[in-house]
Specification:
The protein is of the alpha/beta class. Helix content is about 35%, strand content about 15%. It has two domains: about 140 residues, Roll (Urease, subunit C, domain 1), CATH 2.30.40.10; about 325 residues, Alpha-Beta Barrel (TIM Barrel), CATH 3.20.20.140. It contains 14 helices and 17 strands.
């Protein structure tokens, strides 16, 4: 399974444990660095980390590390963390703009319930020119993730042919991108949330052939289902998937060795999804304050939950504080033309929307809900529901503002993300044998999570990312490590 997911990270013949003497001539050694390993353990100073064949081979005090041939990097005064993980994106593509817009419910005027059981919703047809332009947008967004220190992303619903092609290109080493996991199309009840990008199933076992066809043709890394009737905020009511149907679908998916995640937004539907067997939750509760019992349930069940605060907070942030777009990560990850559109067209449009101000009101509620789940021992992972690497850092800022310690937010952005994706044995922390995804920082992220932006270099699969070769929408950037 590991080599299928990350073919560049080959398993070592013998995994090195603890302080066992490593073989000499590692591909790379990072010396005298402060280690924040992503597991929640206290940071460790003056550590050496060996890397070979895309894996971490040893981790030990520099004073005890053997003399090595190969490339050495001086980490003195710097901090190394695992590569960040975004467990919920919708990559920009042929439709352009923010990929999150690609997975809304059926457009006004459609009659989704008229679609026969098991059929895929009518998919858009793009010309070769539209596909090519969309691919440029997607590659730029992926470059922005890498530049922001994000080494793994999970696309939670998209135009399937587009995202699956990019997933194959990444795994084949043909594009500069984070590791890509993808759902492709969603699985949804007709008329429910996201059904314009979904295989619609309304009964069982009648819908089983369509599900099996989807699993075979798209080979999703994780299957996303939606359990959402809306009727909150400014959203009208829509049909809801029955719990017994969701349970049947999840059981069949799990029988194929594939995890599931469920879109929910209320405590009630989150509980329904958990007890239908969902392996993770794609969003926090945003409709209102959670009960103490729900926080305890999340602590007991350890069902990972994505944070996705920025997707709602981003509306009022743009309207009230557009200056955030002047930050270096945003300037690199967003093209000048898009920056101008955001400030001149999107901002006034969002100012006039009721949804903007409803989400501003509810974001602090969602922040407190997440804090309570964290305090109860629940597993929170960083997800943005966007197509933006810098949004990962904003997500972490919002969690810190909610009262969660920065050191624990690092774990949410790394190992908890791997748990959410069912890949914790493979990546998400700096431990021997795991895939060597890491970010070297010039400042301590356990003191202030904003220091996670102070990036020296990004490493994916044991190789340093050449940032000057990234197709960043904001234009070429020099190597940050060269300036240190």
């Amino acid at each position: 399974m590991a080599s299928m997911i990350f073919p560049k990270c080959f398993m070592m013949a013998v995994l090195m444990m603890g302080t066992v003497a490593p073989v000499l001539a590692e591909d790379m050694v990072i010396d005298d660095v402060t280690l924040v390993d992503g597991t929640g353990h206290a940071k460790q100073e003056h550590m050496s980390i060996g890397i070979k064949d895309g894996r971490f081979t040893y981790i030990m005090p520099t004073a005890l590390a053997p003399a090595e041939t190969g490339r050495h990097i001086d980490g003195k005064g710097k901090y190394i963390v695992p590569g960040f993980i975004d467990v919920h994106i919708h990559l920009k593509g042929p439709r352009g703009g923010d990929g999150a817009r690609m997975v809304g419910s059926a457009p006004k005027g459609e009659t989704p319930n008229a679609i026969p059981n098991g059929d895929l919703a009518p998919q858009p047809v793009y010309t070769p020119a539209q596909m090519a332009a969309g691919r440029v947008l997607g590659l730029g967004a992926l470059a922005g993730f890498l530049y922001s220190g994000v080494t793994t992303v999970y696309d939670a619903g998209n135009y399937a042919d587009y995202i699956i092609e990019l997933r194959a290109a990444e795994r084949g080493g043909k594009i500069l991108a984070p590791h890509i996991l993808a759902t492709g199309n969603l699985i949804t009840y007709p008329g429910s949330h996201g059904d314009s990008m979904a295989v619609r199933i309304d009964s069982w076992p009648q819908g089983k052939p369509a599900l099996l066809k989807y699993l075979e043709t798209q080979k999703p890394d994780i299957v996303k289902l939606t359990l959402e009737e809306h009727g909150w905020g400014t959203r009208p009511l829509i049909p809801l998937m029955p719990n017994d149907l969701m349970q049947d679908i999840i059981l069949e998916v799990n029988r194929h060795g594939i995890r599931t995640t469920a879109h929910t937004s209320s405590e009630l539907r989150a509980i329904d999804a958990i007890f239908a067997g969902a392996d993770s939750l794609a969003h926090p509760v945003v409709q209102g304050p959670i009960s103490p019992e729900f926080a305890k349930l999340m602590g007991a069940k350890k069902t990972p939950m994505a944070s996705t605060l920025t997707i709602g907070e981003g509306y009022s942030r743009l309207v009230e504080h557009p200056e955030f777009l002047d930050q270096p990560l945003y300037q690199a990850a967003i093209s000048p033309a898009e920056l101008n559109e955001l400030k001149t067209k999107t901002l006034p449009a969002w100012r006039d929307r009721g949804w903007t101000w409803w989400m501003k009101l509810m974001t602090p509620v969602a922040q407190e809900n997440i804090r309570q789940i964290y305090a109860a021992g629940g597993v929170v992972a960083i997800g943005t529901d966007q197509s933006s690497g810098p949004a990962v850092h904003r997500e972490m800022e919002l969690l810190q503002a909610a009262g969660i310690p920065a050191a624990d937010i690092i774990m949410m952005a790394t190992l908890n993300g791997a748990k959410h994706l069912g890949r914790a044995a493979e990546f998400g922390s700096i431990e021997t044998g795991k895939c060597a995804d890491a970010v070297l920082l010039n400042s301590d992220p356990t003191i202030d999570i904003n220091n996670a932006k102070d990036i020296v270099f990004v490493m994916k699969g044991g190789k340093l990312i050449d940032e000057d070769k990234l197709p960043l929408p904001g234009g070429g950037r020099p190597l940050r490590r060269a300036a240190r």
